[in-house]
Each structure stands twice: as C-alpha cells, then as structure tokens.
Amino acid sequence: MNFVGIIAGLATFLIIGIFHPIVIKAEYWFGKSCWWAFLLAGIAFSALSLFLYDFIWSTIAGVTAFSCFWSIKEVIDQEKRVEKGWFPANPRRKKKNEKRGMTNTL
Fold it and tell me: How far apart are CA 51 and CA 64, in angstroms?
C-alpha cells in the first residue's frame, strides 16, 4: 500500500489548521505590517522544498510555503475583520496608533 497521498493530505490539513490561529495572533500583535514575515517564510520553505530529496518532506515544505503566501492575503483580510468587530483588536496597539494621530475610522 502507498500512504504518500494520505500523509500529504493529513499534513496539508494540519498545516492549514495551524496557520489559521497564527494569522489571527500575528495580526493581533503586529497588525498587517507583519505580511513580510510570511513572505520570507514562504520563500524559505519554497527553497527548502526544491532541495529536499524525500517526496513527503518536499511536499510538506511546499504546502507550508504556499500556506505562508496565502497568509499574506489573510493577514490583510484579518485587519478588515477586526475593523468590522468580528475579532478583538489589540488595545495596546490601538493606543500606540492614537498617540501617533492614526485612528481607525470606517
């Protein structure tokens, strides 16, 4: 029996599930300006995927890379969800923005 597909599918499911709270926490603590960290991680995992010999590990690295790339869009969308009140805003970050004269208005 060949378990490669099942392992890749399970890994994909877990990686996507892990990235959901990572995006929420990243936006909460750093705002959408943390998108570049997801970009760098995506590039690093893409490169890693090219150099891994084992098919499973290469696939997992590739899935992680594209989950990072997708997270760039999601962290920007997450900021919009926070503005709509669907998720809590970080009160500390809001105070910093108010001190700078930047406020979130709809």
Answer: 15
Please, what is the Cα angle at 3 between 47 and 21, to 5 degrees? 55
Q: What secondary structure does DSSP assign to 60-92, as a single string?
A: HHHHHHHHHHHHHHHHHHHHHHHHTTSS---HH
Q: Which helix (H) or strand (E) holds 22?
A: helix 4-30
Each residue's pLDDT tens digit, 65-75: 999 999 999 99
What is the Cα–Cα distance from 56 to 90, expressed in whole angstroms? Answer: 38
| CA atoms of 100 and 35, how far apart (whole Å) | 21
18: its two tokens: 């892990």
How crowded is the C-beta side of 74, counted as CA atoms within 13 Å? Answer: 18
What single letter denotes the amino acid at residue 54? D
DSSP state of 100: T
Whether pTM exceeds 0.85: no
